[in-house]
């Protein structure tokens, strides 16, 4: 799923600039600012209390006007943080399969799922119910496709059990979002290791 452009200006520019944004250094600078904003928001949403846009701007070292041109609302910024996390998770699946055997690729992908679970938990706790329901509905398909890609490769290789289904895996990894940071650090790797063992094809 591609990350949506949230917070475009009235003239339709994603980065909120005028004609100077058409290309060149100004455009590149706008992209860098957008990335810095998303990175800072991803880190700050984990802290106690409500995420403040002025705190994000301060963490990025940019003016509040620049931040508002990219993301006029806190809700829009957090939604984009989550969408970016989903994008990264989904695109990791084919990359891992290109570099590793299917079962190893699935285990490495599960390591990324733990980081995704933290972001999902924190973002969903910080946005309105209607927003997180919409985000969840639109992310389920792409994540399911990534899981199925990994499972199908393992089934073809004979290393993942033939009856493994993407929906079952999504239900099981969904429990990670219910854990706090300490529990994720202590139990997350073990739980995912157990899941990998359960998906492993039985030896004849």
TrEMBL record:
Keywords: DNA-binding, Transcription, Transcription regulation. Residues 52-71 bind DNA. Pfam families: TetR_C_43 (PF21597), TetR_N (PF00440). Residues 1-31 are annotated as: Disordered. Residues 31-89 form the HTH tetR-type domain. Residues 1-13 have a biased composition (Low complexity). This is TetR/AcrR family transcriptional regulator. It comes from Plantactinospora siamensis.
């Amino acid at each position: 799923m591609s990350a949506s452009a949230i917070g475009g200006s009235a003239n339709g520019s994603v980065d909120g600039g005028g004609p100077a944004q058409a290309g060149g250094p100004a455009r590149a600078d706008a992209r860098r600012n957008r990335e810095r904003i998303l990175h800072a928001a991803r880190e700050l949403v984990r802290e106690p209390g409500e995420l403040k846009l002025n705190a994000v701007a301060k963490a990025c070292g940019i003016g509040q006007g620049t931040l508002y041109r990219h993301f006029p609302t806190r809700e829009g910024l957090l939604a984009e943080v989550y969408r970016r996390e989903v994008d990264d998770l989904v695109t990791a699946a084919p990359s891992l399969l290109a570099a590793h055997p299917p079962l190893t690729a699935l285990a490495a992908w599960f390591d990324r799922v733990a980081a995704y679970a933290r972001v999902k938990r924190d973002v969903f706790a910080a946005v309105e119910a209607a927003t997180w329901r919409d985000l969840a509905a639109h992310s389920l398909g792409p994540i399911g496709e990534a899981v199925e890609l990994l499972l199908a490769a393992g089934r073809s290789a004979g290393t993942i059990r033939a009856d493994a289904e993407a929906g079952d895996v999504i239900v099981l990894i969904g429990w990670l979002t219910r854990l706090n940071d300490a529990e994720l650090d202590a139990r997350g790797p073990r739980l995912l290791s157990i899941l990998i063992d359960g998906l492993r094809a039985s030896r004849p």
